[in-house]
Each structure stands twice: as C-alpha cells, then as structure tokens.
Write a structure and sequence with these properties.
This protein has 598 residues and is of the alpha+beta class. 27% of the residues lie in helices and 21% in strands. The longest helix has 21 residues. The structure holds 2-acetamido-2-deoxy-beta-D-glucopyranose (3 copies). One of its GO terms (molecular function) is metal ion binding.
Length: 598
C-alpha cells in the first residue's frame, strides 16, 4: 500500500497529466493474498531493487469452453469425432485472448512505460506475454513488496510476494501473473522416487537379461523389478513396435537433470541386450544443458528414461531438458531467471507443430501450495491444467506419478490459518486432464504400495468420465474420513503400476529405486505401445486417455484389491474391487487393452 500511495503522489506531482488513465489503473483489487508463508519457506531478505524478474502474464483465454468441449469430443470413444485431434493452429485459435483483453493489458503496460513490442516472448495464441522488469517496478505495477524466500530443505531461494493486486479492470482479463505468490520450485518439490537398499546382487545375475513369459511371471519380479519383469507383468514382451517412424515418447527433465547415455547403455547391456546401441534424442529447452559428466542428482530421471525405453524400445524416446539459471543469490545484481520450468517446457512443446504422442513426467507438489481461490477461476494450476488440456486436444497422452506420501505427508495442516488437518491432494496428479499413475508392489498377489498417492482434489471438480467408477467407492466409504477429503473433487490415481525394487543403472552401478516415479514411465511405456498399435493401423493416437480408460477399456486393467495408503496420521484409503483411490482402475494388461481399443 505504501508503495502505491508513493507512486500516486509522484504522478500527481506531474500536474495531473493523465487523470483518466490514473483512475483506470490506480483502482486496484487484491488478486491473491497468503495468510501465512507456504509450508517449508521462510522470509530471508529484501531483493535488490534492480533485480530483474521475468514477469509472465497469462491472459484469459476467450474460447476456453470450446477447447474443453473439443477435447472431450476427440477423447470420447463413442463420439464420432473420436481421434480427430486438433492442429496447433486450431488450438492456438481457441486459447487466444479476446482483443479487449489484449488492448487492456497492453494499455496498462504502456502506462508503466513498457512497450508491449519489447516483450521477450508472446505465445502463438497470444495468451502469454513475458517481459523482463526490475523488481521495484513490478512492485509498483502489482501494489506489493517482494521478498527473497528460502526453502531450507532444498536450499532453494526465490523472489516472491505474499500478495499481489491488479487494476480492478484487469481482473477479468488476466488469469495469472508469475512470479508472484506461487512459491514452489522444482527443487523444492518432492521428486517422487527414493533409493532402496540393494535387493539382489545383480552384477552376477545374467538371467536378468532374458525374456520372462507373461504366462508365468516369477515371484522375484515382485521384489526385484527388472526390465524383463515389467515387460512380462504388463504383457508387452511379445509385441513388436511397427510405427517407430512416427510414434515417439517424450520424457520431461528439469533443472540440473541430464539424461545419461552411458548409464542407458549399461542398463541395456545388463537387462535388455537387444536394445544396446539405442539412444534417446536430447532436446534442450530454454538453455537446458546436456552435461554428460554430471548425470543429475536425482535417480528420477534414470528411471524415467530406462524403464520407458525398456517397454517402448525401439520407439524413439525424446528427452527434454528444461533450463533455468542457478539459484537466486541475495547479493547478486545479475538478472536471474525465476521462471517456472513447467511453463517453459509446456510452452516449448505446444509451440511445435508435431509433438510426441506420449509423455511421462514425475514431479508433484501439494495442491495447497497454490492459492485455492484462483486455482479454479484462473491461476497457476488452472493455467497449467489448460496447457495439459491443449496437449490432449493435440493428441498426446500425459502421464503423471500420483506422489509418494499416500493421502498426505507431514502434519497435513491447512495453510489458510486454521491449521485444520486435511488430506493433501497432489498436483498435477489431481489435474483432470492427465492420467495419474499410482503404485503397487509384489506379484501374486500384487497389492497397493503403502506410499501410493491418492485422494480427491479440493480445486478441480470430479469429471463426469469417472463418476460411474468413483461413486461405488465413495458409497462404500460412507462417513469414514468425512471432512478430511473432498468427495466432489477429481479423484486419483486413474491407474497404477509397480513402484518398488526397480533395478536401474546410476553412475555405472545397478541400484534399487522405489516411488511412483517408477510407475509413471512404466505405464507411459505401455501407452506408447498402444499408440504404436493405433498408428500402425492407420488410426490416430489415443490422446487424452481417461474417457477411454473409464469406459470401453476398463476391463483391460488388472484390478488391485488390497493394500492402503496411510498418511496425515490416518490409515488412508483401502484398495478394493473396482476403482479405488490407492491404485485406480488397476495395472495394465497390454494385450487386453490392445483388443479393447476403438
Ligand atoms: C498376458 O496375456 C495372456 C493372453 O491374454 C494372458 O493369458 C496372461 O495372463 C497375461 N499375463 C499377464 C501378466 O497379464
Ligand atoms: C515457436 O516456433 C516458431 C516456428 O518454429 C519459432 O520461430 C519461434 O521462435 C518459437 N518460439 C518459441 C518461444 O519457442
Ligand atoms: C470441493 O471441490 C469443489 C470442486 O469440485 C470445490 O468447489 C469445493 O470448494 C471443495 N470443497 C472443499 C471443502 O474443499
């Protein structure tokens, strides 16, 4: 407030040159305000006034309803438009803002001395404007004060604010501005995987390189999950991909993650000798690096590329490395890129006219790290969800891991000031337009793994495609956990796959890893083969999968009927017959799914 008044006084001092525009832009309303600093973060210092922020303005998309309808039409196997995905130009037209929104935002920028033509980036549809502005000026534009906030657990520092305002006139034209009140960085997010103690002395286990029959999967695959195990478990062992000239699988990597080619070759040699020599394509997004000498701190990425390759081989895999600058230094006056890598990656992909038919990515965060009031009506997750929607409309299938904390990690207290304990749904797992993959363990029986993320969104309403499957689960639950979860929210996970004992190669050594980060690329590998089959038959790829999975293809999954996902000091949901919020519809049987495809 103090800043705004100073600014108004300064302008008044100019002799009232622009009284009309003063009124137009100085009548402001709060867009979002935190009651308390988001969990895990603390105020550190005031950023230098000339610290440059990359201000990203997301304009309201004018024909969003049409995009939603189009997405559902092309994804519904009973609709006559099934598979008729939209081109880049068609999607760009549907996400474009109304000309009035463009006019209003550009006038506001001009009022602040910013020439819209100098924008660093404008998306093809026009819904994104990215400009580089010193923090002091952003503070005037958004009537706020920025701080440097520190996340001790990950060592991340970001420049963010506890609240921001917009001219009242712009509230209906702007969905979101970043960086503002969204605190997470990919470093502070939980990478959904963790190393396990070695489960078997693999170096001398030549047998791991041989095929396993899907008719008799050995019990050892329940604890020591090799490439041959997942191929057998999900019944892809005998499928030979036939559309490898067209079909592609995309894998998203973020800051400081580099897919390691040498480890992939060692993995093939050890576990899948036929694939030795197969490499993946590296694509650098916004200055992403491909540093082969530093293969990333997370095992995450190795799982993604090794297990996605293990199933989809020889389908080309594309590894996207999204850049970003080093963590913010409080005493540095150099421009620092405070981008959201997710947004960079999605904007990069959506700017290409041809995109991979299948994607796997594995990070997640608590839904409540973003402002509830605008997650649905415009805001960071809302905007992200629109981007996933665009990928689906273009014909891509997107897989996300469901998270590794069951119904919620930590103390599960709400961050609205009440400190009430509630289950903590994860995002993007809770986005209605991605396919969320939970975790299982064991063979005969296969059961839910106890950390499998699952629950009900507090932001996104339950999509109609899942109502018939989710209702029996809710009915059986009755009043249990009432008040801890939102029964009308989007329910997840949708499906599941193995999540423990994965044998991957990191820095030349075989290591055991666990996490739903194992489940998501494994499932994506199966989807990639289903896409291969569709394409080889001259048909469109599957695109957004959920409407198909919850209807025609439902019987292509092996139902997982025991196990639970405790968290928040509660026993968690229980897996049972039919859909459940621990393992979703179950694990995939490729051959059955293939037979059920439209
Ligand atoms: C694989 O498919 C065959 C033929 O449908 C079936 O008999 C077998 O049980 C399946 N195996 C697994 C692991 O799903
Ligand atoms: C989008 O694609 C066009 C055409 O390929 C290219 O000229 C432009 O630089 C791209 N923009 C971004 C931000 O990647
Ligand atoms: C439940 O979800 C709906 C959206 O489906 C939302 O409007 C509502 O506020 C949520 N309720 C609670 C208590 O979280």
């Amino acid at each position: 407030m103090l800043l705004l008044s100073t600014f108004v006084v300064a302008l008044a001092g100019l002799g009232g040159a622009k009284p009309l525009s003063d009124k137009r832009w100085n009548d402001v309303s709060v867009k979002h305000r935190w009651v308390e600093i988001p969990r895990g973060w603390e105020f550190h210092s005031t950023p230098p006034e000339d610290h440059l922020l990359e201000m990203r303005i997301g304009l309201k998309q004018n024909r969003l309803d049409e995009l939603v309808s189009a997405l559902y039409e092309v994804s519904d196997p009973t609709h006559d438009k099934y598979g008729q995905h939209l081109s880049k130009e068609e999607v760009d037209a549907l996400v474009a803002p109304h000309p009035d929104s463009v006019e209003a935002v550009e006038s506001w920028l001009q009022y602040h001395g910013i020439n819209p033509a100098d924008a660093e980036f404008r998306s093809a549809g026009g819904e994104w404007i990215v400009i580089r502005v010193p923090v002091a000026q952003v503070e005037r534009m958004l009537d706020t004060k920025y701080g440097v906030y520190y996340h001790a657990a990950s060592g991340s520092s970001v420049v963010r604010t506890m609240e921001y305002s917009l001219p009242t006139e712009l509230l209906s034209h702007i969905d979101v501005i970043t960086p503002t009140t969204y605190f997470s960085t990919l470093r502070s997010m939980r990478a959904t995987s963790f190393l396990q103690p070695q489960t078997a002395p693999l170096e001398d286990a030549a047998s791991f390189a041989t095929d396993i029959s899907p008719l008799a999967v050995p019990a050892s695959c329940g604890t020591t999950v090799t490439a041959s195990c997942v191929r057998a478990l999900y019944n892809t062992t005998n499928y030979v991909p036939a559309a490898t000239a067209t079909n592609k699988l995309g894998i998203a990597g973020y800051l400081q993650e580099y897919a390691n080619d040498a480890d992939l070759q060692t993995f093939f040699k050890q576990f899948l000798p036929n694939a030795v020599g197969t490499t993946f394509t590296h694509v650098q997004v916004n200055g992403g690096l491909n540093d082969q000498s530093d293969p990333g701190v997370e095992a995450n990425l190795d799982i993604r590329n090794q297990f996605a390759e293990a199933i989809s081989f020889p389908t080309p895999n594309i590894y996207y490395s999204t850049g970003g600058s080093p963590p913010f230094q409080a005493d540095s006056f150099t421009p620092s890129n405070t981008n959201e890598p997710y947004l960079d990656w999605l904007n990069f992909i959506l700017n290409s006219s041809t995109i991979p038919q299948t994607f796997s990515t594995s990070y997640g965060d608590d839904e409540q790290t973003v402002p509830e009031d605008y997650a649905v009506s415009g805001g960071f997750w809302y905007v992200m969800t629109n981007l996933f929607m665009q990928l689906g409309a273009r014909g891509s299938s997107i897989m996300f891991s469901s998270g590794d904390e069951g119904v919620g990690g930590g103390n599960c207290q709400a961050n609205d000031g009440t400190k009430k304990v509630i289950f903590q749904p994860a995002f993007p797992a809770s986005c209605p337009f991605v396919t969320t993959v939970g975790g299982t363990t064991g063979v005969n029986p296969t059961v839910a793994v106890s950390f499998s993320g699952g629950g009900f969104s507090r932001y996104f309403a339950q999509p109609s495609y899942q109502t018939a499957s989710v209702t029996p689960f809710l009915n059986a639950l009755g009043t249990k956990f009432a008040g801890l979860y939102n029964a009308t929210g989007r329910a997840y996970p949708d499906v599941s796959a193995a999540a423990e004992g994965f044998q991957i190669v990191i820095n030349g050594r075989v290591s055991g890893v666990a996490g739903t980060s194992c489940s998501s690329p494994t499932f994506a590998g199966v989807v990639s083969l289903l896409n291969d089959f569709r394409i080889s038959e001259g048909k469109a790829p599957l695109g957004f999968l959920n409407p198909l999975f919850y209807s025609t293809a439902k019987s292509g999954f092996n139902d997982i009927v025991s196990g639970s996902n405790p968290g928040c000091g509660q026993t968690g949901f229980t897996a049972g017959t039919g859909w459940d919020s621990v393992t979703g519809l179950g694990t995939p049987d490729f051959l059955r799914l293939q037979a059920l495809l439209p």
